[in-house]
Amino acid sequence: MKIRDLGVLDGDVLLFGGPYSNLQAIEAVLIEAAARGIPASHIICTGDIVAYCGQPAETVDLVRESGVVVVAGNCEKQLAANALDCGCGFDEGSACDLLSAGWFAHADRHVDQGARIWMGGLPDLVMFSHDDRRVAVIHGGITDIARFIWSVSEEAVFVEELSAIADLIGDVDVVVAGHSGIAFQRRVKHVTWVNAGVIGMPPHDGGRDTAFALLSKAGVEIKPLRYDVQTAVGAMQRAGLTQGYERALRTGRWPSEDVLPDQLRLSDFAKG
Question: Looking at the predicted structure, is the pLDDT value of residue 47 above 60?
Answer without folding.
Answer: yes
